[in-house]
Amino acid sequence: MKRLKKPFAAILLFLGGYTLAQDLEISGTVTSKADSLPLPGVNVSVKNTTISTFTNAAGAYSLKVSGFDSVTLEFSFMGFSPATEQVSASTDSLNVSLAESPMSVSEEMVVTGFATSVKRRNLANSVATVNAEKLDRAPAPTLDSALSGKFAGVLVSQNTGAPGGGISLTLRGVSTINGASQPLYVIDGVIVSNVEVQSGVNAVTAAAAAGSRRPQDQPTNRIADLAPGDIENIEILKGPSAAALYGAKASNGVVIITTKKGKAGAAQYTVSQSYGQRSIIKKLGVREFTAQTALETYGDVGLEIFNQGQFVDYEEEIYGNEGDIFETRFSGSGGNEKTRYYMSGNALSDEGIVKRTGYEKYGIRLNVDHHFNDRFSAEISSSFTKSVSDRGLTGNDNTGTTFGVSLSSTPSFIDLRPVNGVYPINPFAQSNAVQTRDLMRNRETVDRSVIAGKLDWNVFETARQTLDFNITAGVDYFSMEHDARFPRALQFEQVSDQPGTAILGETENETSNLYLNLTHSLFTGGGISFRTTGGLQYERTDLNNVVIVGKNLIEGQFNLDNASAITVTQNRNIQKDNGYFIQEEINFNDKVFFTMGVRGDSSSANGDTDKVYTYPKTSISVRLSEYGFWEGIKSTISEFKLRGAWGQTGNLPPPFAKYTSFDSVNIAGLGGLLPNTLRGNPDIEPETSEELELGFDATLWDGRGSLEFTYFEQDITDLILFRNVPPSTGFTQEVINGGEMKTDGMELALNLNPIRKDNFNWTTGLNYYTYDSEITKLPVPSFTTGGFADFLGRYLIREGVSPTTIIGADQLPAGPERDAIEARGQVPYQPLGNETPDFQLAWDNTFSFGNFSASWLLDWKEGGDVINLTVLLTDLGGTTADYDAAQERLAGLGDTTRPFVEDGSYVRLRDIRLQYDLGKAVLNDIVYGKLSHLRFSLTGRNLKTWTDYSSYDPEVSNFGSVAIGRSVEVTPFPSSKSVYFEISVGM
């Protein structure tokens, strides 16, 4: 018994010493230093521990800390300078005021993976972020039109100017030739589909029948279904070094979208109503004919019609509609400390600049999060959207059926409008564009549901470490119907041997996700913390697309069973992907932040479906401003961070690249199969992108400015190419891995708050970026891609040359040398331009004065050439506005491509807004405090463009989201400008 006394005494002494460290209970309120109003949502944490909380709706907080005599509390909130306070056992109440700092984003949490996020002050990559305030500043019917000009390193191109039209995003330049070219989209933690589905109107236009096999139906990509008003913020991981944890789908970057969440407190509701009009940005004009030019261009028929003295401006007739835009939005949020909700609804009607075109969208959303207790919480994000778009018939065709191609050879002296319901025959083209517009239909109807759920379990937690388990799952499902109708009465149908066409496309797509993640955090007493994260992912996509084309229909009937000739095509793609990742983060007292990790992926799209491809990453950031030697300049440069990152991502092979497909044939009435001439590759592998990123971030003048600089260099290997094979094999080409490409560039972002006063505030920001690409290895002979034919301008893929180099026929010399070239049948195809811009710069400004605020965004793209085939067609048709004065251009018609490769530079007033907010004092007098805000705003989008480009818009692409060859224009649906008036009421 005596032998136990000494150990027992030692234990009592130890426990007694431990109990000397008292429990601390601290509570207080956090307010804004500017107006003393409470700040809800402020993060209050105990430094070097896992203990933290948030202030409630009244700005109040309460913390209990066990086992410490004194601690340091850290207070952080977006848009405010952080604060630290030392507290001891004698402190039971602590009130803190935070100073507003609009330029400071150091406390912003940035999502870097499925279960990883980091404060921006420690981030080692350049991650572009835009919040709800900037997205909502100028009303946008779809997300694509809200993104332009808001990010450094992001190039936005339109697939079509039609309402609800799709976009293409290029992040840090070209990263593939034949692979997927669009970024990965993640909404509320789950991957969603952004697939483009062709409508099938190629059966009428035959756009892919000659020169290019690429579909050209100008489809909408499905990210357009998301309502911009529901978005809380958008983060863009622009390169492999940032996106490595997303693995084999992230070579083109990742767009992470977080939707709005509820806030604890009394229910708050907002209703807004906007009305606007849209009109064409630019008209090309029409040629003014004389009797002589009508005769020279169109012969006796042209002269006879000209002498009837008619004039119709067909640009005004087809593209001159002033479309009405109506949008109603409702949102509500509220809840308590346990359960919070956000709900919204929107209804949009957007009429196009072409009659009988437009876009309607209706959507609802419900987001709920619930804290069961301190250990368990759950979130669910759900939305349903229905959209209907009537897209008209524009773009390229080889049958003379689209509006623009028909008008390119239609002079203004013939009147094609109906008389007593009868449309005249157009003798100058294969169709009557007015008749086509009035009688045809090209409609897309989409029903889409996206549901994402998350369950968080705090397995255990102490003052120094935590272990958290997370399950995230989601389903993205949409059904789409394409309904295109071309009645027998149409001029181009009447000359068909099977007049009357109906096209029905039915598409179902389901994308499902399941993610299991585990995170362990450890805080040491010396200011060093470790966070280890690992996870498993399973993703499945099931796309089923069926297109039925019926021809030779009875007049007025469009049921397919009335067609005498029916063609059916089906595309079914089921893809399964499995992945895992592990990442370690080490934080050295918020001065040095080091990360390393790896992602592994296997996919049914690869040749070997079981092989795991790994994508490692590592990064480091050093906050020099946290060291003592920085104190002397901290008043000027209050935050300064050096950063470097390296990482790899992949780009999965296209669907079916590993298979040799069979084409259906009909021989003597019997069905059969023939092998396709493209041989699949059972050993096909993903492309690999490797990136090194270096840069710095600085916060200037105590939060009045910020500067970010980034240099990046990417090396892409195992490019997917098509290699010619001997005809004796039974094939013409095979799919291989082999090429290599390099892309490098720089980005610069500068934000300033030059004036910050009680009655006036001005913030301004510049985003600048530039990049270049080069093919560094090509195991096949050089080739051209994109466009239609070398003579019309295509893109040269050659070692040592940029893949966006445009080549074409140059002007033939005069005299004997020309005769010799023509005798040899050789045409000198030479580089004529480059699709890649020299640079792009956006200038954003916001002013607030009293209850008024104003903002505008100017977007400047310098360089970036465009193949303008619209002018080529109007030159061939004799209708170009400057036809009679363009002798130099017309003299080379048929000899050279050079006049039709144009500089696509522009400066565009992307949006401008003036807003008036009725002050709270006035609201109290009028409605006795029943309203939280009453706001009036006037907004314009794309109101002014300065450019030398001769056609409609240098941003519109005929080929949509292709990797190479986006800058080709062929009689597109012209882009539009719009003006909106909006009233917003908050309750």
Task: Please give a structural write-up.
The chain has 14 helices and 48 strands. The strands form nine sheets. It has a 22-stranded antiparallel β-barrel. The chain has a five-stranded mixed β-sheet with strand order 10-15-16-13-14. A four-stranded antiparallel β-sheet has the order 3-2-5-6, with no helix packed on it. The chain folds into two domains: 2-100, Carboxypeptidase-like, regulatory domain (Immunoglobulin-like, Sandwich), CATH 2.60.40; 127-557 and 587-755 and 772-824 and 831-986, Beta Barrel (Maltoporin, Chain A). The chain is mainly beta. Helices cover 11% and strands 49% of the residues. The radius of gyration is 31 Å and the shape is globular. The longest helix has 19 residues, at 2-20.
- The name of the CATH superfamily of the largest domain reads TonB-dependent receptor, beta-barrel domain
Distance between the termini: 74 Å
Nearest-angstrom radius of gyration?
31 Å
What share of the residues does DSSP label as strand, in percent? over 45%
> How is the main sheet built?
22 strands, antiparallel, barrel
Give the name of the CATH architecture of the largest domain: Beta Barrel
